Amino acid sequence: MKLIYELGQTAYFWLSGIFYLVVMESIALYYQYVLQFYPCALCVQVRAWVVGAILSSAVSVYFRGSFWIRFFGLFITIAFVSGAFYTSYYAWGVENGVVISTCSMGAGFPSFMPLDQWIPFFFGANGPCGQSPDMWFGLSMVETLLVTLGIPLLILSLVWITHLPFAISSYGKIANA
Predict the structure, then answer these.
(1) Are 146 and 85 in contact (CB under 8 A)?
(2) Alpha-carbon span 99 to 86, nearest angstrom
(3) Taking the model in full, what pTM does it have?
(4) Cα Dmax for the chain
(5) 3-state secondary structure of 134
């Protein structure tokens, strides 16, 4: 457990996570602009969640020496990856007919943050929902996302859980002071 706790303190942990997420985004852009599989509203929402995870990881790598910033950085990164995982799971449901959805041609971002208007080449939703392209091992892109987001989600959660005892003991010291 100590080894896993110490893993969260290393720059390599955070930088490899950032690299992994950037590769995911690059593959999505390759499918969009080279293979011309245009993303649907759910796909660009997954992109937004992943960008949030990249940004929170970038802040966390810079402040990894501070326990509380690292602890909350792990939590926020887990929240972003969880959001991407949930949206991917929802897209899987739409793709397999488990979820009946009216997925419109808009990206579905809120009016206070219209990412599809600010950065249309990255967050523009031009494709239909429920039709993700095939990728490796006979999996669709949505199924691949469930695997490629599920693994880091488990790793991040494990690292965060190893931080909990220290957080609880530190909080107890603060509360008793």
Answers:
(1) yes
(2) 13
(3) 0.87
(4) 61
(5) strand
* Residue 173, amino acid: K
User: For position 23, which CATH number holds?
Assistant: 1.20.1550.10
Decide which of 95 and 177 is more confident. 95
Number of domains in the chain: 1
Residue type, 126: N
Exposure of 139 by Cβ count < 10 A (0-12 exposed, 13-18 middle, 19+ buried)? middle
Query: What letter would DSSP give residue 132?
Result: P
Tokens matching residue 83: 């959001």
What is the extent of the structural domain holding 44? 2-176
Q: Give the other-Cβ count within 10 Å of 176's Cβ.
A: 6
To the nearest whole number, what is the mean pLDDT of the chain? 86
pLDDT of residue 171: 67
Provide the Cα torsion 153, 84, 97, 129; round to 10°.
-150
Question: How do residues 95-151 score in pLDDT, each as one tens digit?
Answer: 887 877 666 666 778 888 888 889 888 888 887 777 788 888 888 888 999 999 999
DSSP state of 133: P
Closest among 24, 42, 52, 32 to 122, alpha carbons compared: 32
